Structures are given as structure tokens and as C-alpha cells.
Amino acid sequence: MRGLYIHIPFCVKKCAYCDFYSVPSADEYIGNFADAVIIEAQKYNKLICSTFYIGGGTPSILGTENLNRLLSGIYAAFDLRRMAEATIEVNPDSATPAFLKTAKRRGFNRVSIGVQSLVDTELKSVGRIHTADQATAAVMNARQAGFKSISADLIIGLPEQNWTSLRLSLESLTGLEIQHLSLYCLSLEPGTPLAENPPKKLPSDNIQAKLFDKACDFLDRHGFIHYEISNFAKPGYECKHNLNYWRGGEYVGLGPAAASHFEGKRYKNKADLEAYLNRPTKQVTEEETLPPAEKAAEEAMLRLRLLQEGLDIDEMAERFGEPTVRSLMKRLNRLVIEGSLLREDAGYRLNPAKVLVSNPILARVLGD
């Protein structure tokens, strides 16, 4: 499987916690941006992709005209006839019924909505510009547009958040019968306004962990499978595009700051909109080809994010060779002895009790 990703770098306002590359939206740039993405896309010469994902930033800020303009060029540049899944991210403030209907008509079968919370005071505390009512309306409008696969994002650890307010968001979203939910713990990323001026009433790491555990129990009771560290889905509604990432598959990224893994190479575009608009095919700033041992370790790390699936060491040895995975197995077995990983025959999985402390565990899988 191969995925296609387009990064839309525009936002009405940057959220206080966000460290993704984005710039303030400007109508005079958006049309030129769509044209630049089409030019970059043409270098892939009808490449076949099975999944398609437009993320950001705020893709719904494109509006219907520019979305149509972008998609016409993308469908001409890539072979997407066997597409298994096409996802578009939207924010509640710009996810108009017309935009959602256009996205559905042009081939998207999955929508991801940046809800973050359904408590207005929590939204305002981190600079979100939509309201809880707008978020609820976005879910309902997506369903009315014909989407049968709807995902929402929620943040755990917002200022003054407690189980009562988090449960309200969870109950509302499950009541709206969404099929997928991403739960992210708030972190203070260097250089963000939230990190430079932290709110006084941020939940502690210990409280975040308790909230996450309660949310996991709640979602389990409502039929959601905790299939990846931060992701929960009703059976059959796991995000295929992201599954391809975690399984080490190929993907092509278009737009400023977009990353790719294609033909054995990893590369990334510069995070510079102006440079991208001027020379969209000349923006690769990081490129590397991983040697087999590093590639195997990276794939093992990614697969261990899949809590139900994990990794099959025999399958990896068949692909990379037993000598290549020997040192990897030593690291994995040490982590099993310590209780960080579970082993069943040739399979390794992350211990569910270690989900919230998985980063240092996964770094050790890489050999760091």
C-alpha cells in the first residue's frame, strides 16, 4: 500500500499549543498554493496510491472553489482509481455544509474533525476559535453530507479539565455516533505560546494519566478498539492511511513541510511557504536512505505503536535477514524482561500499561 498526503499550511489563527508548520490564511496565497501543489504532484507521473489524506493546518480553509481546483490537478497527476480511503481534515469553524458536500462528491469517504473539546472554556484556554456548538454541528453536517466514517480529535490535559468535563466531550461524541477518535495528551512544545506562558491550572502529568485511563475504559465500554497509542476505532474503521505509516509503508507528501518515504528514501520539504510557491519541485531539505539495520529498527518501533497488531519478528527476519534483526531482537527481549513489551511466540506488543510512557521505550527499540 502507498499513501498520498497533502499538507495545507494555512490557519485562521495558530493555536497556543501547536508546533506544526502553518501560516495565517490569505486569499491571495491559497489559489497559488493549489497550483504549486499540482506542479509538485506532476513529477510523480501517475503514481498509484491506495490512500489519500489532506491535512494541515486547516484544509477546510481552502473553500469549495480551491478544493475543486486542487483535486482536479491531483486526480490528473496520480492514479487514485483503486483508492481504499480518502480523508480530509476540517476545523469546525470552516467546515461548512457546502465544503463537506463538495469533499464527499469529489471522492473523500472519511472526514477528521478537530473538535479538541466540547467545553467552551477549555477551547478558549488554548486559543481554539470554534465553539462546542460549532463542533457538534460539524459532525452532524458531515453525516448529512454522506460521510459514514467520521473521526474526531480530543485533547487531554487542557487547562482546568477534569473527568467531568472530559466525560461530557466523550459522551457527546459517542452519542453523535462517530466511528473513530484520536486522544492526544497536551504537551508544552518549545517555542509555542503555551510553553512560553503556561496556564496556571494545567492538569499534572499524573492527572493526565488518570484522565487517559478513564477515557480508555469509557471508549472500551462504547465499542471502540484502542488500536494505536493515541487512536480508537469501531471495528473496521481504523485509519488505513495512518496504518500504512505505522506498518512502514511508502507515502508521498506534497506541500511545505510535507514528508515522504518513497523508493527507499526519506525526504522532507522545507517549511517555507514563499519558497514553495516559487519553486514547488525544489524544496527537499532532508533526504536519507536508511541502512537495513536502521530501517528494521524504525519499522519495529512504528509497528509497536499498533497495540493489537504489534510486530512479527519472523516476518521481519524474512524481509531484512536474520543477521540484520539479531541486535534488534536483543533489545526487544530486554524490554520483555523489564515488562515494557509482551511476547507471544514470534510476536511482540507494547504492554498496555506502558502506553503513556511509550516514548522512551520506543526510543530504546531504535537503539537510542
Poorly predicted regions are none
Largest sheet: 9 strands, mixed
Level-1 CATH class name of the largest domain = Alpha Beta
Would you report the number of β strands? 17
Structural class: alpha/beta
Count of domain modules: 2
Head-to-tail CA distance between termini? 29 Å
| Total helical segments | 14
Query: According to CATH, what is the topology of the largest domain?
Result: TIM Barrel
> Which word captures the global form?
globular
Radius of gyration: 21 Å
Strand adjacency order, main sheet: 9-10-8-7-6-5-4-1-11
CATH superfamily of the largest domain: Aldolase class I
Overall mean pLDDT stands at 95
Q: What would your notes on this structure say?
A:
The structure is a single chain. The protein is of the alpha/beta class. The chain has 2 domains: 2-244, TIM Barrel (Alpha-Beta Barrel), CATH 3.20.20; 291-368, Arc Repressor Mutant, subunit A, CATH 1.10.10. 41% of the residues lie in helices and 21% in strands. The strands form 4 sheets. Strands 9-10-8-7-6-5-4-1-11 form a 9-stranded mixed sheet, sandwiched between helices. A 3-stranded antiparallel sheet has the order 12-13-14, with no helix packed on it. A 3-stranded antiparallel sheet has the order 15-17-16. Helix 3 links the parallel strand 5 (85-90) and strand 6 (110-116). The longest helix is centred in the middle third of the chain and has 17 residues, at 205-221. The model has no long low-confidence stretch (mean pLDDT 95).
